[in-house]
Amino acid sequence: MSEIEGIPKIVKPDLEYCDKMLERLEYKVGLITRDLGLSSGIHTKSTSGFIIGAALAIVLVGIPIIIKILL
Protein backbone atom coordinates (compact mmCIF):
# COMPACT_ATOMS: atom_id res chain seq x y z
CA MET A 1 0.00 0.00 0.00
CA SER A 2 1.45 3.32 -0.94
CA GLU A 3 1.71 6.06 1.66
CA ILE A 4 -0.50 9.06 1.22
CA GLU A 5 0.12 12.09 3.39
CA GLY A 6 -2.28 12.23 6.36
CA ILE A 7 -3.48 8.62 6.04
CA PRO A 8 -1.89 6.10 8.42
CA LYS A 9 -0.18 3.05 7.01
CA ILE A 10 -1.87 -0.30 7.78
CA VAL A 11 0.29 -2.55 9.94
CA LYS A 12 -0.19 -6.27 10.45
CA PRO A 13 -0.70 -7.24 14.10
CA ASP A 14 2.24 -8.83 15.91
CA LEU A 15 0.60 -12.10 16.95
CA GLU A 16 3.82 -13.50 18.36
CA TYR A 17 4.00 -10.67 20.92
CA CYS A 18 0.31 -11.15 21.78
CA ASP A 19 0.84 -14.90 22.34
CA LYS A 20 3.82 -14.28 24.63
CA MET A 21 1.86 -11.71 26.63
CA LEU A 22 -1.10 -14.11 26.91
CA GLU A 23 1.20 -16.88 28.21
CA ARG A 24 2.66 -14.55 30.85
CA LEU A 25 -0.83 -13.47 31.88
CA GLU A 26 -2.03 -17.08 32.19
CA TYR A 27 1.05 -17.90 34.30
CA LYS A 28 0.40 -14.98 36.65
CA VAL A 29 -3.28 -15.86 36.98
CA GLY A 30 -2.25 -19.43 37.85
CA LEU A 31 0.08 -18.15 40.57
CA ILE A 32 -2.63 -15.90 42.03
CA THR A 33 -5.16 -18.75 41.98
CA ARG A 34 -2.71 -21.08 43.72
CA ASP A 35 -1.91 -18.44 46.34
CA LEU A 36 -5.60 -17.83 47.06
CA GLY A 37 -6.21 -21.57 47.40
CA LEU A 38 -3.32 -22.00 49.82
CA SER A 39 -4.33 -19.02 51.95
CA SER A 40 -7.94 -20.18 52.17
CA GLY A 41 -6.75 -23.65 53.22
CA ILE A 42 -4.56 -22.14 55.93
CA HIS A 43 -7.45 -20.02 57.17
CA THR A 44 -9.74 -23.06 57.38
CA LYS A 45 -7.12 -25.12 59.21
CA SER A 46 -6.32 -22.30 61.64
CA THR A 47 -10.00 -21.96 62.60
CA SER A 48 -10.42 -25.67 63.24
CA GLY A 49 -7.06 -25.74 65.05
CA PHE A 50 -8.20 -22.94 67.33
CA ILE A 51 -11.43 -24.78 68.19
CA ILE A 52 -9.63 -28.08 68.87
CA GLY A 53 -6.98 -26.30 70.95
CA ALA A 54 -9.61 -24.48 73.02
CA ALA A 55 -11.50 -27.74 73.67
CA LEU A 56 -8.32 -29.55 74.74
CA ALA A 57 -7.35 -26.65 77.02
CA ILE A 58 -10.76 -26.78 78.73
CA VAL A 59 -10.48 -30.57 79.16
CA LEU A 60 -6.91 -30.42 80.50
CA VAL A 61 -7.80 -27.65 82.96
CA GLY A 62 -11.04 -29.39 83.92
CA ILE A 63 -9.48 -32.79 84.75
CA PRO A 64 -7.55 -31.60 87.85
CA ILE A 65 -10.59 -29.62 89.05
CA ILE A 66 -12.87 -32.65 88.71
CA ILE A 67 -10.33 -34.90 90.47
CA LYS A 68 -9.99 -32.39 93.33
CA ILE A 69 -13.80 -32.23 93.75
CA LEU A 70 -14.19 -36.04 93.74
CA LEU A 71 -11.35 -36.70 96.18
UniProtKB/TrEMBL annotation:
It holds the Pfam family MtrF. The chain crosses the membrane at residues 50-70. It comes from the Archaea. One of its GO terms (cellular component) is membrane. One of its GO terms (molecular function) is tetrahydromethanopterin S-methyltransferase activity. GO terms for biological process: methanogenesis; methylation. It is an enzyme of class 2 (transferase). Residues 6-67 form the Tetrahydromethanopterin S-methyltransferase F subunit domain. This is Tetrahydromethanopterin S-methyltransferase subunit A.
